[in-house]
Amino acid sequence: MSKKKLISEVKYSFKELFKTQPLLLFSPGRINLIGEHTDYNDGFAFPAAINKGIVLAISKSDSDNNKVYALNKKELFTFKSEQIKPLEYGSWKNYILGVVSELQKIGKDIGNFNSVFAGNIPVGAGLSSSAALENSFVFGLNEIFHLGLSKNEMILISQKAEHNFAGVKCGIMDQYASMFGVKKSALLLDCRTIESKTYKIDFKDYKLMLINSNVKHDLSDSAYNDRREVCFRISKKLNIKALRDASKDDMATIKKDISNGDYQKALFVINENQRVKLFSEAIKEGDLKTLGNLLYQSHEGLSKNYKVSCDELDFLVDQTKQNPNVLGSRMMGGGFGGCTLNLIKKDEYIKFKKVISEKFNKTFGKDCSVYAVKLSKGTHVLNSNK
Fold it and tell me: Domain check: are 261 and 363 in the same one?
């Protein structure tokens, strides 16, 4: 569904349900050009907001509870603001409960509210629909209740909501990119200082293609948190704050004391941080070939060293290597499913979409989904209800 249609449907649904004018916001999903699993290691990443996201309609309510209508799911969730706890099978509800709870923890006075939201981010694609949802609510609540929060404060609320209510110990990259995104640009993000430098990107005759394997992954399962624990354990062994501070020479000093699997995972993070820096230099020089090569190197590390890929993702990346019109490809996101990110010639997009879709279906007996994305603006108000 297009963004324009999404806005129209959310606005209409809100007026039907609550008979009043809402504040309307858009909060985008994100892609990460390079720098995967580096964020929780205080490292560097290169995310960008995209033109797919969550539209939220929200307003104050005079009732004694909060109402949230998930338009895509046709589910109405009603809750009171007192004694908020995570729901055992809360799915999307926990992200919203988490935001409200974390705002309460910092002493923000929130009244009751009504809301409707819908999105066009493919679920399970690794495009951070959860961060977009969290950001939309913290931004919306900040606006209607005049909480006076900065964007930096808001993304920390979103991150804590994910940690404490969804059980995912995510880094800050997803929330940051969704909140701070700049049109036609990516953000070189330092995940330690939570500061970024904006890089306007001209892909020239190429465009970004996402191929969703439609393998559903759940980041709250043990695999993601296990990788995080490995990194923290090795940092402690090296007596450093995070793997961002480690070098290959440092790793050599403890190689005999740790498993080969843990060694390879830590080495991946060190190499990936270096790739992010090389990627930024290639952007400045307009060197698209190097950008593509770095994407392939990143995937190789994610698959062979960090071991967060899967057969479907490896297949999609391998297929692009046979096509001279694709400069680079890699899996994107937490892993174990989701999307590959591909840099492909604009005039070959339709042809390759047909070819890869047929090959994927023939190999796995199911369909992949293919779509183009543009680099977009971060979370923002679409109108004013005043």
Answer: yes
* Single pTM value for the model: 0.89
Shared domain for 143 and 230, answered yes or no, is no
pLDDT, one tens digit per residue, over 208-255 is 999 999 987 554 467 878 999 999 999 999 999 999 999 999 999 999
Residue 2 pLDDT class (50, 70, 90 cuts): confident
For residues 29 and 172, membership in a common domain is answered with yes
- Characterize 145-175 residue by residue with b for buried, 16 or more Cβ atoms within 10 angstroms of its Cβ, and e for exposed: eebebebeebbbbbbbbbebbbebbbbbbbb
Which helix (H) or strand (E) segment holds residue 363: the answer is: helix 349-364
Range of the domain at 111: 3-200+375-381
C-alpha 328/C-alpha 209 separation (Å) is 11
* C-alpha distance across the termini of the chain, in Å: 28
- Please report whether residue 386 resides in a domain: no
Do 94 and 230 belong together in one domain? Answer: no
3-state secondary structure of 149: coil
Residues 247 and 288 in one domain: yes
Same-domain pairing of 151 and 54: yes
Q: DSSP secondary structure string, 191-211?
A: TTTTEEEEEE---TTEEEEEE
How many structural domains does the chain have?
A: 2
Distances (CA, A) of 372 to 47, 50, 141, 207, 212: 16, 10, 31, 8, 11
Same domain? For 177 and 281 the reply is no
Side-chain-facing half-sphere of 113: CA atoms under 13 Å: 26
Q: Which residues are catalytic?
A: 174
Instruction: Using the predicted structure, report yes or no on whether residue 34 has a pLDDT greater than 90.
Output: yes
Phi, psi of 90 (to 5 degrees): -80, -20
Q: Which amino acid is at 33?
A: L
**CATH number of the domain where residue 345 is located:** 3.30.70.890
| Structure tokens given for 296 | 């392939």
